[in-house]
Each structure stands twice: as C-alpha cells, then as structure tokens.
Amino acid sequence: MIPTHAVAIRDFTKRYGSFEAVSNLTLEVEPGSICGLLGPNGSGKTTTFKCLIGLTRPTSGTLEVEGASVQPETFETLAYVPERSALYEWLTVADHLEFNRRSYKTYDAKRANELVDLFRLERKKKVGKLSKGQHTAVALVLALSIRPRILVLDEPASGLDPVFQRSVLDLIIDAAAGGSTVLFSSHQIGQVERAADRVAILKNGKLIVDGTVDSLKGSEKVVEAIFDQAVPAVNGLASDPRVRRVERSGRILRAYVKEDSDGIARRLSEFSPKNVSVLDLNLEDIFINAVGGDIPMVKGDGA
Amino acid sequence: MSYVQFLRLRKSLTIYAIILGGLFLIGLAVGHSPSTIFESDGSHTKQSMTSLPLSGLLFFAGWCAIIFATVVSTSLNKEYDGVEMVWTKPIARERLAASYILLDLAAIIIAFLFAAALSVLEVASFGGLKYLTVDSRTVPTLVIGLGSAIMWYGLVQGLTAGQRGRGSMLIGISWGAAFCLILLAEVTRGINQPIHVLATIVNVFNPIAYFSSYSLSNFGAHESPVLPQALAGTEMRSILTWTIGLLGCAAAIAGWKRLEA
Amino acid sequence: MAAIFIVDPRSGVPLYLQLIEQVKRAVALGTLASGEQLPTVKALAVDLTVNPNTVARAYRDLERDGIIETSPGRGSFVRADGSSKGESRRAIDDVAKSVLGDAVREAKTLGLARARAAEIFSEQLDRWFPPVPGDEQQ
Which chain C residue has its CA at the smallest distance from A279's CA? Predict the structure, then answer.
C-alpha cells in the first residue's frame, strides 16, 4: 500500500483579483503528526485552510486529504474548528450536540459528554450567552466528539487565558497520541514549540520556513562575534544565502543564520574577533527572524 | 438533515400561529359583542347572509402564506454566517440546500392550511358554516394562492442564496417593488400604452400580480389589468406561479453551491 | 509522576534529548526505581504538554541505550537488572562534563585568567558542597 500523506498541499496558489493571497505553497503532513502553521496576520493561513476543506476554491494547485480532495464524505473523519465562531447563538449547547448526532455516523455521545463536563459547559445554556472561550470550547467538543482522523484548527486558542490555552493544547496532543493528524495555526509560538512535530512559517502567502522543530533549532542559530575594535565590514554577509539577517551593535556583530552556523562562524573568525560563539534560538526568535524585516534595529547595513 | 432549519421554522411557525391565533380571538370578541351583527371583520370579504364563498377564506389564507413565505425566503442567505459549520458536514451542499428549501415549502403549506383552518373556525363560531359555498373559484384560489407564496419565496431565494448577506434588504425591496409595479401598470393603462405594456411584462415576475383581488373579481375572464393578456387566465397563472417559484428554488441551490466562503 | 520530569520547550536543546536526560537523571538518583513503570507515551505527552512523537522518540532511544525496556501491551519499565543505573550514572556524568565545560569556556570568553577561574570555581564548590564539620566529603 502506498502510504499517503494525511494532508498534501501541492503548488497551491490563491488569487483574489490581482492580489495573491497564497503563492505556490507545498506542504505535506504525515499521518499521526502535529503540524503548526505560523505566520503574521494576512499571511495566508486561513485562506489555506479554507481551500483545503473546500469552503473556497484554489486558483491553482491541489489540496488533498488522505489522497483525495475533500468531498462531503471526508467530513465524517475531518473536523474543522474555524477562527471565529460559526455556532448558532440562539441555540443551546445541547442543540449543537444534537445537530452533530444527526449529522455524523461516527458521533460518540460519551466522548462529547466527557468533553462538555471537562469544559464545564451548561448544556441548556444558549450559545449567545457564552463567553468567547466557551464558544471555542463548544466548537472543540463538536470537533472531537466525532473522533476525527484529521483535525484542522484555525487559531484555536486566540484571545483565551493561558489555563484554557493549555487545555486546548492538551486536547490536541491527546488527539495526536490517539493517532489523529492535527494541522493548526497559532500566534502562540510557545504552543507550537511544545506540541508540533513540524512547523511551517508563512509570510505574504509564501512558505519561508518548513521543518521539524528540532531540525530548525538545530540549524537556525545566531553566530555572535565580539571584536576589540569596531565591527569590520564583512563583505557579502547579509546577502549570503545562509544568513537571514545581520545585526551590529558597538563591537558586537550578530549573524542570524538559517544553516551552516559553523561555516559562518569560521568566516567571521577570519576577521580576528576576540570571541566567536554560536547561540541557540528558540522558535519565537526563529519566527521573528524569518518574518520580521520591519523590526526597528540598531543600524544594520547591507554589507 | 437540516435540524437547524427545522428548529428555525418551528420557531417561525409558532410566532405565526400566535399572531393568527390572536387575530382569531379578536375576531371572536368583535363578532360576538352585542353591538355587532355578522359582518366582515378586517379579513373576510363582505358577503350577503346567504352565501360565503370558501374562496374568500382561501384568499385570506393565501395572503397569510405569502407573508410567511417572504419571511422565510432568505433562509439560505442567512446561513452564510455559519457556513464554516454547515459546509463542513458530511452532506453535499446541493442536498443541504434542497432540504432547507423542502422544509421551507412544507412550512409555507402548513402556514396556508393553518390560516385557512382558522378562518373556517372563525366562520363556524358565528354559525356561518352552512353558508360556506364551494364554487369554480375555490380550487384556483388555493392553487394560485399557494403558487404566489411559493413564487415569491422562489424568487427571493433564487436571488439571495448565492450572495453574502443583505438578504433581508431584498425582502423589503421586493414588497415595495411589487406594489409599485402593480400601481404602475394600473395607472398607465390606457394612458401610456408603452409603459403599461412594459409594466405588465415585468409583472410576470411579480407574485402580487397573480393574486390580487382581480383573481376573485374577474375570475374566468382572461383579462388582467396588470398582466399580459396571454397570461391572465387561471390555468396560466397556476402554471406560471408554481413554475417560476420552483425554478427560483433550483437557481438557489445552484447559487449556494457555487458560493465561496 | 510527571512532576519529576521538567522540560523547557524554549531551550535550544531538542525536547526529546531533554527528556532522555531527565529519565537518566531520575534513574541515576533512584527517583525512578529498578523495574518501575514509566507513564505511557500518551499520558506523559499530555502531562508535559509536548508532542507525543517527542516522548515516543525519547522512549525508543532510552530503550536502545539500555535504560528502559518496553513490552507491547504492558508498557515501559526501568530495566530491573541494575545495568540501567550504571548506564544512567555514566550519562549524567557526560552531561555534567558538558555543563561544566561550558562554564569554563564561558569564563575564558569573559577574559578570566586560569587562576582566577579556579578561585571562583573553588568558592562555588564551597557554596554548594559546604563542608559539614565532622563528616567526610561525599
């Protein structure tokens, strides 16, 4: 049997008029893994999800779940939690559960009730009277109650308190541990750092970083060189394809590299610095380096 | 499977029933008060004591159904806010839209029958049952009455299903436009023939043109002041209202299917 | 159980390596006894709020290193034959070498002379291994 990716997005482009929201995105997610999609607002994350699950049509490229584009039947095992609440404000929590019960063959009432109790939701309460966090909780209950093989979540914990965010993350991890594949986007980089197998970072609709958390941390480093005198001009450093950006401050030069930090360190050693060290970056740093370009810094240059 | 729409319609029908029930009770109170003898109360056409055509009651029921139909006619348009939920279920969009429409149509029919039943009850409460007469107008009034409701529903649904939002605005506009068109056709008749003809042609798509009081008064005559002559007869009206209505529903299903979130 | 494992997702050290070190430390110190059962992959992943594959990978490597053994259906256990303790002690030793080595390198980077570095190091030893009167140093 040829193993298929749980989610396979290939060369996907989406244009709205002349505006290209997503450009040539290719992303593959292995079954049973957790993939975190990061990116500034407007970078194309939600557009990608919408095209993946068929709410919108792509301009070109393919988006497949378990080897085929999403059909109505796919939703027996694919659950989606959108960023903004799509619940019916005038219905109760119980009504929504009933809605699910009638729509799905795989609805697990026991699991649904477990989760309702976990989130301490009142079944008879109208959704309109629930807090934002509780809206998300209901959406999660509905999604997880069908025991989906694939779970797609768009900013599942945005605007929620840290305790609640942790609960959401625990549920995601629990689902993956049970064999589900999870694809989620988040602004909480710490969440992605903990929970994701692999990370994809989007900027302006383009994929700029793609790899496992461990391999990214292994290759994305800061090479710091401290000089006795002023920092010398290092020709071509900023334009070196291995380097994301360069920072100078007083007698310190920092090169944020995406790979081959040793090579860059050797290069800098040629300028006889007092000390050269390679420092680790956490995912937040990696993200900011990859995505920011607009961060006010001490005068960098284009040397 | 359109549990939500079922719940919505149940709510709408309940409100509708309460309103009609209220009218019914008011009618009882007014009719049975000592100062009133059996005469028309707002809703029934005035008739002599010897006969009361059932078509009159059905005419009233038809109008109730039309009003109800326009209220529920933007059901697909209103669902746009929740598409992330309904379009991520294991049911094809066309099937979903069709089930919404079928439920709506069933509710419209129930609304019609309920209004008809209440009217008959009202008459019965005054001992007027024995005066009720069935004639050649009865069935056409029923068919065209329901047809007009379905036609209005179909037109609005067809125009709004593929759009995002602002459906309620169209309901309001449609009521205004419908009456204006009738008026236009009426006043230009004989005075400004070209505009009159244009108005009558546009009125082919105007549900009120088929079911105004002309239906009753000049029944049988293939003549209508507001419709093209060729289409003024009862058979044509029956066919046209239902056909346009159902075509509108089909367009709605297609429009909803093509819509993007 | 999970309270004895602490991992830092923000660290540059991969989580699975941190977890492996944590388990070895626990075994070396006796916090995890011979033959004791470890939490399931799923339970530990949820407890620590980390990716389950991270835990699975750590367990696999621990098994390869001879610290734990996994029987399908029963779970993962610290090896009961006593070899794991020695193995773990050696691993902890390696970690200590690396950490102290980093500290010395850092001191050098700061420009300390060897003698001064040794002085400070001795002060720190006194601070953390305070001599107890009458007892022998461990």
Answer: C12
Q: Is residue C1 pLDDT above 60, yes or no?
A: no
The pTM of the full predicted model, rounded to 2 decimals, is 0.84
Distance between CA atoms of residues B199 and B185, nearest Å: 5
A291 close to A208: Cβ distance less than 8 angstroms = yes
Interchain pair A55, B260: CB under 8 A: yes
CB within 8 Å: C9 and A166: no
Instruction: Tell me which chain A residue has its CA closest to the CA of residue B85.
Output: A86
Is residue B209 within 8 Å of B218, Cβ to Cβ?
no
How far is it, in rounded angstroms, from Cα A59 to Cα A51?
9
Contact check, Cβ <8 Å, A33/C16: no
**C contact test, residue of A165, A171, A173, A281 with most C CBs within 10 A:** A173
Question: What pLDDT, in 10s, does the model give residues A232-279?
Answer: 888 888 888 999 888 888 889 999 998 899 999 998 888 888 889 899
C-beta atoms of C10 and A193 within 8 A: yes
Residues of C in contact with A177 (CB under 8 A): 41-42, 45-46, 52
Quote the ipTM score: 0.82
For residue C77, what are its two tokens?
């256990």
Other C-beta atoms lying within 10 Å of the C-beta of residue A252: 15
Q: Is the CB of residue A209 less than 8 Å from the CB of residue A201?
A: yes
- The CA-atom distances, in angstroms, between B112 and each of B206, B224, C3, C94 are 19, 25, 68, 86
| Half-sphere exposure for C105 (CA within 13 Å, toward CB) | 10
